[in-house]
Design a protein that fits this description.
heterodimer, A: alpha/beta, TIM Barrel, 2 domains, three-stranded antiparallel beta sheet, 9 helices, B: alpha+beta, Nonspecific Lipid-transfer Protein, Chain A, five-stranded mixed beta sheet, 8 helices, 5 strands, 48% helix, globular
């Protein structure tokens, strides 16, 4: 199976390639991609150089242009697709139907993948995207069980890519409005979930208080981990009970499920984390490359030491084993 | 998460005796050299380059406040982070590990080995810009004083072995 790894900077891309990534995904430094964070992402020149580096080392580069174009500003997204092709990208990862139509018509030779942001969760919709826009691969939303993924693969020729490590979204991707509600900015439109400009941590006596857009979303004691700054991982009181009412702050780790995912017909394994450092990228990619190689050699899955790198220092197999509350 | 080495107290206390102005001048020169050789840091900072950043090693009695007035770096050694837009605090070894790409900033932040106060956006931009620069502080310091380079290299290597603190760019990342 192909290992698709994140890179928020050229240095992280090189770290991913060196650690054994088969493909690296990244985005431009603007609102065309869903990780539009300060200090992150690639200029046109950096992307061209990075693709050259990756190709020299036998790795592919996939460019995420996976936000939804603003009315009247589609040109920014159109330019991103054209520039990705010019830089030599192996594929673009798109979510918006209009942008897919534009890329299909104007850049027919540029391979198109369907982003997780499109939330395509059954074979009918995936086959529709394939018939209309020629998508070769779909990144499946993180709401499916392994059995459901196997069912999809039986009914489509489109390659499937699934997340195996990193942060989880509790919502159907591309449809979450929590960040937008609190800050006016969302991953779907602006490429930022819980933008750093709206995140504040305050020490109040012994408590550390996390605020997003002025809303208190978590308050923890002295020895607890720092709370995650998104509403979905916040801690609230509802009907007399206090807890993580949307989602626990835990990272996905599907290492143990790799044999089942292979059997389910999955083509590619995706690691989340373009906003993370090159140290994270190097460690996680190396660990998963070992696992993929072990699987190919018929050996047992290696037990990694990735807990320290996960959100809330806790890990879960997410929806793959269907244990939602 | 690794246990981070803390600077021994007597050494930290001795630093109090050093006057701040020459220390500020030396660190300003070092930072200007780094930014000259790694212009990507300033371009990655973008709008955030107008902010001031306090770096606070919690095991040392000083705080370094970095600003870029008119695009020229200035480092001021202070007792606290007063006047800075954001402050990043942690043991010196954790901060150095971050600069050298040996540890992950988010993991350090969520485990509370790193504390961010004030303007989160500015702190995040600085972290990402520095992470991409693949800095090697030992190398940068030896560039500042070339005649002392061989001695400094031996000193840095010995300190790294004894403390486990990343004083060089993390291996295997380039």
């Amino acid at each position: 199976m192909e290992l698709v790894c994140p890179a928020g900077t050229p240095a992280a891309l090189r770290a991913a390639v060196e650690a054994g990534a088969h493909a690296v995904y990244c985005g431009f430094a603007d609102e065309t991609n869903a990780r539009n964070f300060p200090g992150l992402n690639f200029s046109r020149a950096e992307l061209t150089d990075s693709i050259r580096y990756a190709h020299q080392h036998g790795a592919k580069v996939l460019v995420a242009i996976n936000t939804f174009p603003r009315a009247g500003a589609q040109d920014l997204w159109h330019r991103a697709v054209a520039d990705a092709e010019r830089a030599g990208a192996d594929a673009v990862i798109l979510a918006d139907v209009g942008l897919l139509a534009y890329a299909t018509k104007n850049h027919p030779n540029l391979r198109r993948h369907l982003s997780v942001q499109a939330a395509a969760a059954n074979a009918d919709v995936i086959n529709f995207y394939a018939a209309e826009f020629g998508i070769k691969r779909v990144v499946l939303p993180r709401v499916l069980t392994v059995a459901e993924i196997a069912a999809i693969n039986k009914e489509t020729e489109v390659e499937t890519e699934v997340f195996v490590f990193g942060g989880l979204c509790v919502m159907a991707e591309g449809r979450c409005s929590l960040s937008s509600y609190a800050t006016g900015k969302s991953p779907n439109m602006n490429g930022v979930c819980s933008p750093a400009s709206h995140v504040v941590y305050d020490q109040e006596g012994p408590d550390l208080v996390a605020r997003l857009g002025g809303f208190t979303i978590h308050r923890v004691g002295k020895t607890d981990p720092t709370p995650y700054p998104t509403l979905c991982k916040g801690c609230f009181t509802s009907k007399g009970e206090t807890g993580h009412v949307f989602d626990d702050p835990a990272s996905l780790n599907a290492t143990d499920l790799l044999p089942q995912l292979a059997k389910a017909g999955v083509t590619a394994l995706k690691i989340e984390g373009r906003q993370r450092s090159r140290a994270y990228v190097a460690q996680v990619v190396r660990s998963f490359r070992d696992a993929v190689d072990a699987l190919a050699a018929g050996k047992p899955m290696p037990t990694g030491a990735l807990a320290a790198l996960s959100e809330g220092q806790a890990m879960t197999t997410g929806a793959y084993a269907k244990k939602w509350r | 998460m690794p246990e981070f080495f803390a600077i021994p107290k007597p050494f930290a206390q001795a630093l109090r005796l050093l006057p701040n102005p020459p220390l500020s001048l030396m660190l300003t020169q070092l930072t200007r050299g780094i930014l000259r050789r790694h212009p990507g840091i300033v371009s990655r900072l973008g709008d955030q380059a107008g902010k001031s950043f306090a770096l606070a090693p919690t095991d040392l009695p000083l705080v370094l406040v970095l600003s870029l007035p008119g695009g020229v770096a200035k480092v001021k050694v202070q007792r606290d982070g007063k006047g800075a837009d954001c402050m990043i605090s942690g043991k010196l070894s954790a901060l150095l590990g971050l600069v050298h790409g040996a540890v992950d900033g988010d993991a350090l932040f969520f485990s509370r080995d790193l504390v961010i106060e004030g303007d989160t956006e500015a702190a995040l931009a600085l972290r990402n810009a520095v992470d991409d620069a693949e800095l090697d502080l030992a190398e940068e310091i030896t560039r500042l004083a070339p005649p002392l380079a061989p001695m400094l290299k031996r000193l840095v290597a010995a300190a790294e072995r004894r403390t486990g603190v990343a004083l060089h760019r993390a291996g295997g990342v380039l």
